[in-house]
Amino acid sequence: MRRRRNDYRTWEELSLQERRRGLAVLAIVGAGAVTAVYLVVGGGGAQAEAAGAPAPPTVDTGAQLGAWYAGTAELRTQIVTAVNAVRADIQASDGTALRPACVQLGQIVEGIAGLGQPPTATASRTWTAGATAYSQAVTACGNLFDGTQLPPPVLLARTTEALNTADGQWTTLAAQIGAPAQIVPAS
After folding, report:
1. Is the pLDDT of residue 50 over 80?
2. Whole-structure pTM over 0.70, yes or no?
């Protein structure tokens, strides 16, 4: 950008070599300005924290997951107790006691949705898989008494298999969280 006769030229009037030189000068000036701002304002990280800048907020999903899991304790205890009753009635081949036990388990399982989902995707999938399996157990158990045209041993096996799957999923969830598996011994 040379001066000619006290007059400045426009960008279009500059030669290719002059344009390149001008862009190089602008790039150097821009890099210098960015570096100056970085040095004056601060680069963040440990230097910013040492200068008194607050650290960025972090999300402690472990604590959130633990708090959510603790909030499900009452329902989980009710489910374990109801599942133990269903298993005991299946073991004893006591159909008259099994029907109300299945109904009670079904009522408790309906409350699972009200607890919401865990705050992590993995825990959410495990929780949902367990809840789904408990629902399948309730359905299979109810089929024993609603006239479904399957032999009772098949329906009892489906009920037991679904309960085993559900218990396994929720035991896996407890392990993911670092909590002990919830087992309520049969009375």
Report:
1. no
2. no
